[in-house]
């Protein structure tokens, strides 16, 4: 397909010879578990454009899996990192503290959903944040049990992997898992398991009843320390629950004296049009985990929560050598500077509206798009073999994404069947750049999925 492009520039076939050479070295240098989605080796990137070592420039709609909400090599973040590198790189905060950690914690505390006092502790990765949120919840409550949801993804360390629901590729052959982890259904409006053809509110109510039943069949409420939930499921398929779900869950946990941990690793920092997705529900969690776009690609994560809960662990029970390191906290403060000086939340809303409008127009013409769904700029397209049976189209989805890569657009999939195209473009992506990518996506879906 020959199409005029403004942003995409392809000089070679994909992958180019220089990328192929590096990837052949990778096969010998690292284990097979370190597999790559895009067979292109990056040279440089800025905003939403990525250029490989062969000189090919792509529109990047992956955002480093939701890490680059303020864009590749954001100018404010770059300046903060350069300034920090010249001052110092490491002390271990608990040995010799630095002001940037304190300032970032203060600024995030002020954004805690629901308002009121909060405190923040930093870690390196989303999985670490989840692991430590569980430790904090257990220390505060004196209980052991943790309830998570079907299709959940919370990371790949032991407790996080135990909470994760997707077996392949994350859990197969990786047991035994952490004990005292229980599972409940998560409402999935497109694939309601509680009565096909029922109105959504009926399906929702039956799902909530099933969650309550999980406590009767699996664990006593008084043995549960916390329920952990994604406000929009990420790896599980960009599943947007009904607006009643989080308020119901908040009431449910409070009734039983159970803490509510909201995992905002992927949804946080503006992705859904609010700084934290929890704000859409108008509730206050007890603990909230954050990572990914917190520092524009520098490893950083955190747990923010009510002070009395956060003070559950004793001195030195949580922490680590590199947690909240100076480079990361400098980057994190710069990211907040961007949010305070630019209307990124408004950009997320506009991006989401644009994506939904364009994708629903494609859906009307395509026999393979079962649903277009999203919250803000966190938008997913579920592909099916047949719109009536809703049979997942995983192989088709993979084929479309690889053809998109060949045409200069990087975009990822999600879902337990691998049949959801997910959009995680930087919130700063110009709409005409988004249109260039969507034009190619429309052509590719019609070619690959047209009948």
TrEMBL record:
Its cofactor is pyridoxal 5'-phosphate. It comes from the Bacteria. GO terms for molecular function: (S)-3-amino-2-methylpropionate transaminase activity; 4-aminobutyrate:2-oxoglutarate transaminase activity; identical protein binding; pyridoxal phosphate binding. Its EC number is 2.6.1.19, 2.6.1.22. PROSITE patterns: AA_TRANSFER_CLASS_3 (PS00600). Pathway: Amino-acid degradation; 4-aminobutanoate degradation. One of its GO terms (biological process) is gamma-aminobutyric acid metabolic process. SUPFAM superfamilies: PLP-dependent transferases. Gene3D superfamilies: Aspartate Aminotransferase, domain 1, Type I PLP-dependent aspartate aminotransferase-like (Major domain). Keywords: Aminotransferase, Pyridoxal phosphate, Transferase. It holds the Pfam family Aminotran_3. It catalyses: 4-aminobutanoate + 2-oxoglutarate = succinate semialdehyde + L-glutamate; (S)-3-amino-2-methylpropanoate + 2-oxoglutarate = 2-methyl-3-oxopropanoate + L-glutamate. Belongs to the class-III pyridoxal-phosphate-dependent aminotransferase family. This is (S)-3-amino-2-methylpropionate transaminase. It comes from Sulfobacillus acidophilus (strain ATCC 700253 / DSM 10332 / NAL). The lineage of its organism: Bacteria, Bacillati, Bacillota, Clostridia, Eubacteriales.
């Amino acid at each position: 397909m020959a199409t005029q492009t403004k942003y995409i520039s392809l000089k070679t076939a994909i992958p180019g010879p220089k990328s192929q050479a590096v990837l052949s070295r990778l096969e010998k240098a690292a284990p097979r578990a370190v597999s790559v989605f895009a067979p292109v080796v990056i040279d440089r990137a800025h905003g939403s454009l990525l250029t490989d070592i062969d000189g090919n420039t792509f529109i990047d709609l992956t955002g480093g899996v939701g890490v680059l909400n303020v864009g590749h090599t954001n100018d404010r973040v770059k300046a903060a990192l350069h300034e920090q590198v010249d001052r110092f790189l490491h002390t271990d905060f608990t040995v010799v503290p630095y002001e940037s950690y304190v300032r970032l914690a203060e600024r995030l505390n002020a954004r805690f959903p629901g308002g009121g006092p909060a405190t923040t502790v930093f870690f390196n990765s989303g999985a670490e944040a989840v692991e430590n949120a569980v430790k904090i919840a257990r220390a505060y409550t004196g209980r052991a049990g943790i309830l998570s949801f079907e299709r959940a993804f919370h990371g790949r360390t032991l407790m996080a992997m135990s909470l994760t629901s997707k077996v392949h590729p994350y859990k197969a052959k990786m047991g035994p898992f952490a004990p005292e982890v229980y599972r409940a259904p998560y409402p999935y409006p497109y694939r309601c398991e509680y009565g096909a053809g029922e109105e959504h509110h009926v399906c929702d109510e039956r799902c909530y009843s099933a969650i309550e039943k999980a406590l009767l069949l699996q664990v006593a409420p008084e043995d549960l320390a916390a329920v952990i939930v994604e406000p929009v499921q990420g790896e599980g398929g960009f599943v947007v629950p009904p607006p009643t779900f989080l308020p119901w869950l908040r009431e449910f946990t409070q009734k039983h004296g159970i803490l509510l941990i909201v995992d905002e690793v992927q949804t946080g920092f503006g992705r859904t049009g609010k700084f934290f997705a929890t704000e859409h529900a108008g509730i206050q969690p007890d603990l909230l985990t954050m990572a990914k776009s917190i520092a524009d690609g520098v490893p950083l994560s955190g747990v923010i929560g009510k002070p009395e809960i956060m003070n559950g662990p004793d001195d030195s029970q949580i922490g680590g050598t590199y947690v909240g390191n100076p480079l990361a906290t400098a980057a994190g403060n710069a990211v907040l500077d961007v949010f305070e000086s630019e209307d990124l939340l408004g950009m997320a809303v506009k991006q989401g509206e644009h994506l939904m409008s364009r994708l629903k127009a494609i859906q009307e013409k395509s026999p393979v798009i079962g649903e277009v769904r999203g919250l803000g700029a966190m938008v997913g397209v579920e592909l099916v073999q047949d719109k009536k049976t809703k049979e997942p189209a995983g192989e088709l989805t993979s084929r479309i994404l690889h053809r998109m890569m060949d045409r200069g657009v990087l975009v990822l999939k999600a879902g337990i069947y691998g049949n959801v195209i997910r959009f995680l473009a930087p919130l700063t992506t110009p709409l005409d750049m988004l249109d260039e990518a969507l034009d190619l996506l429309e052509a590719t879906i019609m070619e690959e999925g047209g009948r």
